[in-house]
UniProtKB/TrEMBL annotation, chain A:
PANTHER family: 5-KETO-D-GLUCONATE 5-REDUCTASE, DECAPRENYLPHOSPHORYL-2-KETO-BETA-D-ERYTHRO-PENTOSE REDUCTASE
Family the UniProt entry places it in: Belongs to the short-chain dehydrogenases/reductases (SDR) family.
Protein name: Decaprenylphospho-beta-D-erythro-pentofuranosid-2-ulose 2-reductase
Species assigned in the record: Streptomyces tirandamycinicus
One Gene Ontology MF term: oxidoreductase activity
NCBIfam families: PRK07904.1
Keyword field: Oxidoreductase
From TrEMBL, chain B:
GO molecular function: D-arabinono-1,4-lactone oxidase activity; FAD binding
PROSITE patterns linked to this entry: FAD_PCMH
Protein name, entry field: Decaprenylphosphoryl-beta-D-ribose oxidase
An example Gene Ontology CC term for this record: membrane
Classification via PANTHER family: D-ARABINONO-1,4-LACTONE OXIDASE, L-GULONOLACTONE OXIDASE
Domain FAD-binding PCMH-type: 22-190
Organism of provenance: Streptomyces tirandamycinicus
Record's keyword annotation contains Acyltransferase: no
Gene3D superfamilies documented for this protein: 3.30.465.10, Vanillyl-alcohol Oxidase, Chain A, domain 4
Origin: domain of life: Bacteria
Entry-linked InterPro entries: ALO_C (IPR007173), FAD-bd_PCMH (IPR016166), FAD-bd_PCMH-like_sf (IPR036318), FAD-bd_PCMH_sub2 (IPR016169), FAD_lactone_oxidase-like (IPR010031), Oxid_FAD_bind_N (IPR006094), Vanillyl_alc_oxidase_C-sub2 (IPR016171)
Keywords: Oxidoreductase
């Protein structure tokens, strides 16, 4: 069960090698979390992530999960929930893709969309249903500011996050009053493996900062969290910039 | 999120929270009107079990059951028999102490123990083994229970009497041994419905503890309100109010005509939506200052009504809403005599951190009662509430828990919403027996609550 501050005791991370996911798990293990499920494609990285959390004292279990195989989600996640209540699901998987490369190869672009959006729709709905049946829990969805407005530099990734974001907002409304809390997290540019080698955007943040914001959001039962918080203001201004002007902005 | 009667008609889960309004979870609310309906509700509760709920005054998650059934016991509200000569009442578990006072005071009887609110049910009082301002004299609620009717997981209704294992597991057992259906209580005789109250101020914590230690024996009721925002030399300054039921000849002539009248007044309720952060450091600090200054340095035998003396907050319905949407956490612990240093340490830490805590309450407990998970033990108990949204509050309270546990003390489960499960066995030595008895009488785990899930009770 979560405590009065929204801190979970059991945690399921979809995208078990995600840096933000692991930073969040580390933070929560330091507080109350004792059981962590890491869901991801079996790999040495997943095992290493599990070992890292075990060293902090958590009971960690890994489960094979592939965002690109939605047909397998129900059975696999069903097994996790059958083991006991999950207080928080962190939907942390996603790929950035390579915009120039993917524009030239539509199938590669589809793969980005399928991972970030389709995979999230199926696993998100399944987890939401399970949380609703247990009458409590948080579903935390990692969206992105990239989904707020299409940018020339990453609109394939951005559109997949836009879809995910809208989906998660609607899911949050659908679950309002069921004891289940859906929280959409919109980080800006996060310094991580995913963005290694890219030109850093203004207001860049780190996985640890995102994790801290998630913990705070859980405490406040927030529905939307921006990281850093000032992006809420920045993005609401940018959203209204006329397109001819927006195209010329160095964003 | 409060439970309103309209929710009860639906067959859909509704969000349920404790009085602190933190960590809501959804459950199917069932409102049995008879013992048979209660038995049927327990029988059909499904795989996520059931828990009984009274008037929802437990601060944390003791009367929540995520995904399962919550039995709203307020429908079982009959007072069955009153022995007006001997002072014994038999009543359903859903009867509130408020109702008992309305009915019993005119007959010259008072409830044996009342907490800071009248709006708790008898069933809740038994299961939390509540205490009041008279604990140093009268012990906790269970001491005055002559017998109980308990609906257990096998569907049977058992009569449970003091001195048995099931009684000791049920009193303080947070509803996890079964559903209390009715109780037989011994009452306290009174001549009037007024209190004769002595008030004095204590300038700091040591002064306060000295006054409580030397003076409590003279009073049936005793409590101190501490200003936990006061720092430095004033740390722990407090207002003591202690009293006794007023004798007939203490009443002014007009009041003597109706000495047992009981007419509590209520202010309008706090509105449903209140902005958070209203109770910040500044506002609480100003309030505490005024409240301390307003109290007389010393005043003797002032006549006060029962609501004014025992239940000042009951005058403001839904006062818990002033903490806003984020809710609040109440922290109450006890440490034994000789462990005063732990109490001082907690008070110092709270004062240093400047937690915006409204008037905290300090009381000196007398002998404990045998309930395995019963909270009181001889020593000092301090209760304070803090807005749950305060950054860093979780780790801060974890630190206090450690101080309390190291001193052999414990926190109160009826108010808990955040204890680290590992500390529970340290604080409650009777936990293993409790778990063993539950495994025996409820092997399928029918009775379950968010509290029991969170702490693996």
């Amino acid at each position: 069960m979560k405590d009065a501050f929204g801190t979970p005791q059991t945690l399921l991370v979809l995208g078990g090698t995600s840096e933000i996911g692991l930073a969040t798990a580390r933070r929560l293990v330091a507080r109350r979390a004792r059981t962590v499920w890491l869901a991801g494609r079996p790999s040495p990285a997943l095992d290493a992530a599990a070992d890292g959390l075990r060293e902090l004292g958590a009971d960690v279990r890994t489960v094979p999960f592939d965002a690109l195989d939605p047909s397998g989600h129900e059975e696999l996640l069903g097994k996790v929930f059958a083991e006991g209540d999950i207080d928080m699901v962190l939907l942390a998987f996603g790929v950035l893709g390579d915009q120039a490369h993917d524009e030239a190869r539509p199938l590669a672009a589809v793969r980005v969309a399928q991972t970030n959006y389709t995979g999230a729709v199926s696993s998100g709905l399944i987890c939401a249903g399970a949380l609703q049946a247990q009458g409590h829990g948080s579903l935390v969805v990692l969206s992105s500011v990239a989904g707020e407005r299409a940018r020339r530099a990453n609109f394939i990734y951005g559109s997949s996050k836009a879809g995910l974001d809208t989906f998660a907002q609607g899911l949050g409304d659908a679950l309002h009053g069921t004891g289940v809390h859906v929280m959409v997290v919109r980080p800006g540019f996060v310094r991580s493996r995913m963005t290694a080698g890219l030109v850093e955007a203004p207001l860049a943040t780190t996985p640890d900062q995102v994790a801290r914001a998630i913990e705070k959001g859980l405490r406040r039962r927030s529905e939307t969290v921006w990281v850093p918080g000032v992006l809420r203001v920045v993005m609401s201004a940018l959203r209204h910039v006329p397109r001819p002007l927006f195209r010329r902005l160095p964003v | 999120m409060p439970v309103t009667p309209a929710d009860l008609d639906d067959d859909l889960p509704v969000p349920v929270t404790g009085w602190g309004r933190t960590a809501p979870s959804a459950a199917l609310l069932v409102r049995p009107r008879t013992h048979e309906e209660a038995a049927a509700a327990v029988h059909h509760c499904g795989s996520r079990g059931a828990i009984a709920r009274g008037l929802g005054r437990a601060y944390g998650d003791a009367a929540q059951n995520a995904g399962g059934a919550v039995l709203d016991m307020t429908g079982l509200d009959r007072i069955r028999t009153i022995d007006a000569e001997g002072g014994v009442v038999v009543c359903d578990a859903g009867v509130s102490l408020h109702r008992l006072m309305e009915v019993l005071l005119p007959l010259g009887w008072f409830v044996p123990v009342t907490p800071g609110t009248r709006y708790v049910t008898v069933g809740g009082a038994v299961c939390a083994d509540i205490h009041g301002k008279n604990h140093h004299v009268s012990g906790s609620f269970s001491r005055h229970v002559l017998s109980l009717e308990l609906l257990t997981a096998d569907g049977e209704v058992r009569t449970v009497v003091p001195g048995t294992e099931l009684f000791d597991a049920t009193t303080g057992g947070m509803g996890l041994t079964g559903v209390v259906l009715s109780a037989t209580l011994r009452l306290h005789p009174v001549r009037t419905s007024l209190m004769s109250v002595d008030t004095e101020r204590a300038t700091d914590l040591d002064d306060l503890m000295a006054r409580l230690t030397t003076g409590d024996g003279r009073y049936r009721y005793s409590v101190a309100w501490i200003d936990l925002l006061a720092r430095g030399a004033a740390t722990g300054r407090a207002v003591l109010t202690r009293g006794e039921h007023a004798p007939l000849d203490a009443l002014p002539p007009r009041a003597r005509r109706r000495p047992l009248e009981f007419r509590p007044r209520q202010l309008p309720p706090v509105p449903g939506v209140v902005p958070g952060g209203l109770l910040g450091r500044a506002s609480v600090s100003v309030f505490n200052e005024l409240w301390y200054r307003r109290a007389p340095r010393a005043r003797r035998e002032q006549l006060q009504s029962i609501p004014a003396f025992f239940h000042p907050l009951d005058g403001v319905p839904h006062w818990n809403r002033v903490y806003g949407r984020g809710g609040f956490v109440q922290y109450q612990f006890v440490v034994g005599h000789g462990r005063e240093e732990a109490l001082r340490e907690v008070v110092r830490r709270v004062a240093r951190r400047q937690c915006p805590s409204f008037l905290a309450v300090l009381k000196r407990f007398g002998e404990g009662d045998p309930g395995w998970l019963s909270f009181p033990m001889p020593g000092w108990t301090l209760a304070l509430d803090v807005p749950a949204g305060l950054p860093g509050l979780g780790p801060f309270l974890d630190g206090l828990d450690q101080v309390v546990a190291d001193a052999g003390g414990r926190v109160y489960l009826a108010k808990d919403s955040r204890l680290r499960p590992e500390l529970l066995a340290v604080m409650y030595p009777g936990l293993d027996r409790f778990r063993a008895l539950r495994a025996r009488i409820d092997p399928r785990g029918v009775f379950v609550s968010d509290l029991s899930r969170r702490l693996s009770l």
